[in-house]
Design a protein that fits this description.
The chain is mostly helical. The protein contains seven helices and two strands, in the order E-H-H-H-H-H-H-H-E. Helix content is about 55%, strand content about 0%.
Length: about 200
């Protein structure tokens, strides 16, 4: 038994049939691997990414988030990205910061793509109730096929962070939109228990 509408963020409010579920997860894995492999083949760090790394090196040396020690000059546009690379540098220890930034950017880019696909699959779930369907990632494949998408997945900039953030927001928005609600104020209605076919 589980509550109507799904019991958690991870459980779709409208369960998939087995074919739809398998095709969704297979699509997610295939596109994530293709995107990660394609981005790795085109890996690089932009000039601005090297500016971030210089700021991170100053942070690691105890000089603060500055471009040159002793100068209070703001040199980065993304504070969160700078500190993510900084913490990655702390955890990575002797690993070169270029590889820390590359790994973080690639991981976040692929995670964002996965969340986008899971959100899209969840969005279509209500229209698939009781029907067999294949969920194929046409939109994700178009994005992955564009060279700049693969280029900027590892540019040393905050593109991967932005992609992960957008993917998370999209997935959460779809989850929120499918939550059971009453007429006024958007408050959740009491959950009714029912048998789950899945």
């Amino acid at each position: 038994m589980k509550p109507e509408g799904g019991s958690a963020l991870w459980t779709p409010a409208f369960p998939y049939r087995p074919l739809a579920r398998v095709s969704l997860w297979l699509s997610v894995v295939v596109v994530a691997v293709l995107f990660g492999w394609g981005a790795w083949q085109r890996r690089w760090i932009a000039d601005d990414g090297l500016i971030v790394l210089r700021t991170v090196r100053n942070l690691l040396a105890g000089n603060g988030p500055v471009f040159n020690a002793g100068e209070r000059v703001e040199s980065n546009t993304s504070t969160l990205w700078t500190y993510l690379v900084y913490f990655g540098g702390l955890v990575g220890g002797p690993v070169r910061l270029e590889y820390v930034a590359l790994t973080l950017a690639l991981t976040l880019s692929v995670a964002g793509m996965v969340m986008v696909m899971l959100g899209a699959g969840r969005l279509y779930a209500p229209s698939l109730r009781g029907r067999r369907a294949l969920l194929l990632p046409a939109g994700a494949l178009v994005y992955v096929a564009i060279p700049p998408a693969r280029d900027f997945a590892t540019s040393g900039l905050e593109n991967g962070l932005v992609m992960a953030w957008l993917g998370l927001l999209w997935w959460l928005m779809v989850v929120w939109s499918q939550a059971p609600r009453t007429g006024r104020g958007g408050r959740r209605s009491p959950r009714r228990w029912r048998s789950s076919p899945v």
